[in-house]
Amino acid sequence: MKSFFKKQETLFVYHRYYNSVQSKWAQKMDVLINDLSRRKLICLLILFTILTGSYFIYNIFSAFNKSDLRGQNTAAISKIRTINFKK
Question: pLDDT digit string (tens) for 30-62?
């Protein structure tokens, strides 16, 4: 069976700006966590996971909770206006 797509011969090369930002970020993170023990790193990872997980669960819960309408505008649209209407 013939393949629909040709195999890519050259590898994808990222822009040099992206590569430099990525290497600088990696160096900065290496300096920040260099003196931390493995136990502290695992504790920070667990803390980060709990905080982000609870944030996303709160967002999902507030999206489906109908009694909390403080942040939503429930005003009805009276008339639809056309944009860039040429006469």
Answer: 999 998 999 999 999 999 999 999 999 999 998
Residue 85: CA count within 13 A, CB half-sphere? 5
DSSP characters over 21-73: HHHHHHHHHHHHHTT--HHHHHHHHHHHHHHHHHHHHHHHHHHH-SS--TT--
Instruction: Give per-residue burial for 23-52: e unless 16+ CB within 10 Å, then b.
Output: eeeeeeeeeeeeeeeeeeeeeeeeeeeeee
Query: Could you tell me if 33 and 41 are in contact, meaning their C-beta atoms sit under 8 angstroms apart?
Result: yes
Provide the whole-model pTM: 0.51
The confidence score (pLDDT) of residue 67 equals: 64
Please give the helix or strand (H or E) that residue 17 lies within, else none: helix 16-33
